[in-house]
Amino acid sequence: MPSDSFCLAAQARLDSKWLKTDIQLAFTRDGLCGLWNEMVRDGEIVYTGTELTQNGDLPPRKDDGVDTQSGTKKEDGDDKEKKDEEDAPAPARRAKSIVESWVWGRQPDANELKECLSVLVREQHSLAVRSATSTLSALRLKQRLVILERYFIALSRTVFQENVKVKWKSSSISLPPVDKKSVRPTGKGVEGLARVGSRAALSFAFAFLRRAWRSGEDADLCSELLQESLDALRALPEASLFDENTVSSVWLEVVERAARFLRSVVTGDVHGTPGTKGPGSIPLQDQHLALAILLELAVQRGSLSQMLAAVLLLLQLWGSGRQETDNERAAQGTSAPLLPLLQRFQSMACGKDALHAEADSHFLSGPLSPNESFLRYLTLPQDNDLAIDLQQTAVVVMAHLDRLATPCMPPLCSSPASHKGSLQEVIGWGLIGWKYYANVIGPIQCAGLASLGVSQIACAEKRFLILSRSGRVYTQAYSSDALAPQLVQGLVSRNIVKIAAHSDGHHYLALAATGEVYSWGCGDGGRLGHGDTVPLEEPKLISAFCGKQAGQRVVHIACGSTYSAAITAEGELYTWGRGNYGRLGHGSSEDEAIPMLVAGLKGLKVIDVACGSGDAQTLAVTENGQVWSWGDGDYGKLGRGGSDGCKTPKLVEKLQDLDVVKVRCGSQFSVALTKDGQVYSWGKGDNQRLGHGTEEHVRYPKLLEGLQGKKVIDVAAGSTHCLALTEDSEVHSWGSNDQCQHFDTLHATKPEPAALPGLDTKHIVGIACGPAQSFAWSSCSEWSIGLRVPFVVDVCSMTFEQLDLLLRQVSEGMDGTADWPPPQEKECMAVATLDLLRLQVPTSSSPLLSVSGVTVFMTSKGVGFSLLDELPMKVFQYFKARL
């Protein structure tokens, strides 16, 4: 088949025709033939050589009627090409002749064989190209590409023309000079004239629409007027009229009058006769446009009361449409093309922290609420003209209002010492039993801990302690299916200020405000400090620290896996428990069952101490910023090079001038934090626990490059992973990830520090590490919110009345007597209504009413609606049936 030889000659006069063409036709066989033949007829395809059509015939040629001279020239050109082809050697014959010459002649050498092979390759390549470009599929592909090129040429020309701005010359008429002396305050006068004008314009517009609908004339003008109004509203950002103080009262009056008129249109009583049918009734298309405008006006007003009124209207229209006896009219009355409204809500970001919420919501979420689940799996149609069920529209709008309200929600917990809500969040991740029971893979919000008001968390091997702001101590097992902290009864009467445990240990310490130290748990080696090795289930006072003067009272405590330490107000360090490898610092490997002073640091004021595990090392920081270490030296964890251990404190010279303030001991490694926020680590490097990007052992303190530029204020060390808290409330982690210690469900070890996503907006103030667990908690500030927040808060009587009415409608039949579970739309509406109610009432009330896990704030300022009287029973019945 001869190769194609044609070119495209796009004509501008045909651009509008191409823009109206369905370009999808080019991808069907018949459509391609039709479009191609049209381009040939229009003269937009110019052939420069011979081409066969898809049927094998010659295509029509536009230049069939060329004059003799041009035809002669073309013939001469063809003759010249044929002559050149005849003169040129044929590659196939040359290759064939080479091969034939070897049959009876001499055998070829290596160079001749290579030359022959090269000729054959060129021959095959040329044949393949000619075959590929002359197939029917290749011809159709070229034709499709030319058609697409023609379409994009038309499109680009049209866009360019639309971008050209026509500049009108300004009027040259001179205006009379203004007498400045006659200038008067015209603000009120202008506003009055504007009000008169707007009222007249609205009255005229409303009268025109009523007359047109009554007479049936000018129907197109009515639809066009409503459509232009709707388009103008959709072009505005949402809540543009929310701040009424910045909006002219004239505009607010216009919006209010327009809303009343539109409401009468959608309900069909614009002529004073509700639901008028037959001649004189409002066309369904205009009613749909009026409904869309009314809903867009509610979005522009941006208040919760307006949105609730819109939702109630949708439910009212849906209910009245279902009562129609005419099936066709009933179907039309229960749906409307409102997809653009739902798309607008879908694009709205959640209030505060919106920049982080979408990217990090999947990290810090618990079980999905009904509305979260509903929106997550909701897929909106693509056709904007598709009629959407009005009830479903109301459900989607309420679900989005619930979503927008989520960042503003009051906490589900409160401090035991206060009736006000606390904003504290406690987040746990890693090997936690109740996390898997809740079907959460990543981190989980620990509301049961936040309700205590967490001040400190200390992690042991199998459980952890929680110190509340009220001085109470609680304990919780990692493996428990439920998060239910148990109060340590033996410390109820004490005001505890510090707690201590070790990620590889089985004993605990608690420090009271009076300087008394309590211990319980495993007693092997005398680690409890009571002079024996008896284990204790309840805390017991360590008598060695009783009756001390102010300077000798304990101010800091620490636990290793098998021993303990305490620092007094004067900076003296005491250690007791297992003494092997010299970890106690007393110059021997003997166990000590009662606290003993570390004499090697006498004269120095110790401000921090850290105890290790297994072949343990001990670190101490003195007031002058120096670090001392002793105990086992394997892997260089003492920070002085080599693996030699020592039984008395020795200075870590590499840290001498760095002004260290805190030290931590993990499993065979050490960490130090300086005053200016830099972190150093050294010791065993397996599982990337040191954070230097390798698994090499480090025998001297080495700066963590991954935290450069960050000021770290606290560090926590688990068995093989670490956390660092910066002054910007970022939490960085590194090390082992076999139990998702870094949010990473792929269980990949983290070689260098990196921020954990989603925590930088939580105002984290504390961190803790267990053997394979991590915890972080935020500050405990009081919750507050304004009286008006766009779309979610509007504290007024109308809002409560609407919530009352809405809850009555959606809770009907949800008492467990009817079919259960209830329909999804009812459940979503009920949850959204309760959440919005919960957000309204706290601004005027303080008492909390908890019903089956739902916290509802009851007002004490006389909001005397039946909703507040019946709400507890409604919520109780709903959740009783649900459970």
Report on this structure.
The chain is of the alpha+beta class and 883 residues long. Among the domains are: 6-89 and 118-159, no CATH class; 214-408, no CATH class; 789-882, no CATH class. The chain contains 21 helices and 36 strands. The strands form 11 sheets. A 4-stranded antiparallel β-sheet has the order 6-5-32-31. Strands 7-8-9-10 form a 4-stranded antiparallel β-sheet, with no helix packed on it. A hairpin with an 8-residue loop joins strand 9 (473-477) and strand 10. The model is unreliable at 50-93, 164-186, 352-363, 413-421, 843-868 and 876-883 (pLDDT under 50).
What is the number of beta strands? 36
Q: Which blocks of ≥5 consecutive residues have pLDDT under 50?
A: 50-93, 164-186, 352-363, 413-421, 843-868, 876-883
Structural class, please?
alpha+beta
Global morphology: flat
Q: Number of helix segments?
A: 21
Oligomer: single chain
Into which percent range does the helicity of residues fall? 25-40%
Tell me the distance between the termini.
77 Å
Give the mean pLDDT: 80
Instruction: Trace the largest sheet across and list its strands.
Output: 6-5-32-31
User: What proportion of the residues form beta strands (DSSP E)?
Assistant: 15-25%
Q: Radius of gyration from the CA trace?
A: 41 Å
Largest sheet, if any?
4 strands, antiparallel
Biased composition (Basic and acidic residues): 72-85
Protein name: Putative E3 ubiquitin-protein ligase HERC2
Domain RCC1-like: 594-780
Organism: Pteropus alecto (Black flying fox)
